[in-house]
């Protein structure tokens, strides 16, 4: 499965690079994808080493969980201010800063002498993620206005690979030689990503500056006015709903399969991995299709099918059908690059970073509560009801996409 993921993603990256080869810009997609894989992979490596961290520092599950929660909360809170900063200093500086700080935080993880230092490093890595998340999208949307869905889809697919492979490698090293070794190995990888970004992304000339350097008090009202456009509100509502459903679903999917569907632990884990393999394949494919057809149609199709699949997950009893449903749930991730390129294209260029950063704050903050909601249903013996609720939310998201104008941005 790992080889399949890597082969399909490599094909997607090469296809995108070939498509933009004329002026060498295709290498920027590869560099941004590598950087994003390091960000996502490291953020998911933190929970992967928690059993080893707990054993060494003798902390409770609650304390260990707080370190992960702090990282994601900081990550979400950073989106809007980092978007504002992107509009002021440019994407190149933000992306390079993220890789440099990422290497430093990986070193801090690797030498953490106490649990508070480990937890502080986790929170600091939330800033690293915030530095990279918004400018990666605005850079690609500006560089490839006609093919932004393809470029963003490739980057997100490689991020999915990072989220699968890097935590697995860090976990194996943790078991073999200690949990610090994996983070130590990430340091040169961050530096390689730094070098790739430095070489592939040119500095912006003064004439190309997007921000007009207006005072913050004047800029914020303009951002708020821009994100209140009907189209942006509809897509934001749909993305927030689907982010919520996907986080809630994936947080308890393996548990649901074992507890409610009598699936073995190993089979449940295999199906869970298959879901993300399908997600990694779907993202660049959906982006390319949307760039050539109609974003609205792609969003409606993917999200509508996702709502049906959530119902099928509950009602399916036959194992082969259930397995197919589980892995096909990964197709929902294909909507993310399409919706992202739709939003960014609708925002004024001079506030694109800050506007998208504000919307990402909404996505990440609201969806972070999904696991708690599904957990409450599960504790009340209402697991099926939880997934049916998620299907209703996915249907509402489909309705939001249907209300978008048919004309493309």
Automatic annotation (TrEMBL):
Residues 28-409 form the Major facilitator superfamily (MFS) profile domain. InterPro entries: MFS, MFS_dom, MFS_Efflux_Transporters, MFS_trans_sf. It is a multi-pass membrane protein. It comes from the Archaea. GO terms for molecular function: transmembrane transporter activity. SUPFAM superfamilies: MFS general substrate transporter (SSF103473). The chain crosses the membrane at residues 27-50, 62-82, 94-111, 117-139, 151-177, 183-201, 232-257, 269-286, 298-315, 321-345, 357-377, 383-404. Keywords: Cell membrane, Membrane, Transmembrane, Transmembrane helix. Pfam families: MFS_1. One of its GO terms (cellular component) is plasma membrane. It is found in: Cell membrane. This is Putative MFS family arabinose efflux permease.
């Amino acid at each position: 499965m790992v080889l399949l993921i890597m082969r399909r993603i490599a094909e997607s990256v090469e296809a995108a690079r070939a498509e933009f080869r004329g002026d060498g810009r295709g290498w920027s997609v590869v560099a941004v994808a590598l950087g994003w894989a390091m960000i996502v992979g490291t953020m998911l490596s933190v929970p992967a080493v928690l059993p080893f961290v707990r054993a060494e520092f003798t902390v409770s599950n609650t304390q260990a969980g707080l370190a992960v929660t702090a990282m994601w909360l900081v990550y979400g809170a950073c989106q809007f201010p980092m978007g504002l900063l992107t509009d002021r200093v440019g994407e190149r500086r933000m992306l390079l800063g993220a890789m440099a700080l990422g290497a430093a935080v990986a070193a801090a993880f690797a030498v953490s002498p106490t649990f508070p230092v480990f937890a502080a490093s986790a929170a600091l890595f939330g800033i690293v993620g915030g530095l990279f998340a918004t400018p990666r999208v605005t850079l690609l949307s500006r560089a490839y206005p006609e093919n932004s869905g393809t470029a963003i889809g490739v980057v997100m697919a490689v991020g999915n690979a990072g989220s699968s492979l890097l935590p697995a490698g860090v976990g194996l090293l943790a078991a073999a030689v200690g949990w610090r070794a994996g983070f130590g190995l990430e340091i040169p990888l961050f530096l390689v990503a730094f070098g790739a970004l430095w070489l592939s992304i040119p500095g912006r000339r003064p004439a190309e500056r997007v921000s007009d350097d207006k005072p913050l008090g004047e800029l914020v009202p303009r951002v708020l006015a821009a994100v209140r456009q009907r189209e942006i509100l509809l897509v934001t509502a749909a993305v927030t709903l689907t982010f919520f459903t996907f986080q809630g679903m994936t947080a308890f999917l393996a548990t649901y399969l074992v507890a409610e569907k009598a699936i073995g632990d190993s089979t449940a884990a295999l199906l869970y991995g298959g879901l993300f393999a399908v997600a990694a394949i779907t993202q660049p494919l959906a982006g390319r299709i949307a760039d050539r057809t109609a974003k609205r149609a792609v969003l409606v199709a993917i999200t509508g099918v996702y709502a049906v699949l959530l119902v099928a997950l509950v009602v399916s009893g036959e194992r082969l059908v259930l397995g197919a449903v589980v892995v096909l749930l990964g197709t929902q991730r294909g909507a993310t690059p399409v919706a992202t390129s739709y939003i960014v294209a609708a925002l004024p260029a001079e506030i694109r970073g800050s506007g998208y950063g504000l919307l990402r704050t909404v996505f990440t903050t609201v969806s972070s509560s999904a696991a708690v909601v599904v957990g409450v249903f599960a504790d009340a013996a209402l697991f099926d009801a939880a997934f049916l609720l998620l299907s209703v939310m996915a249907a509402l998201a489909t309705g939001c996409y249907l209300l978008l104008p048919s004309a493309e941005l």
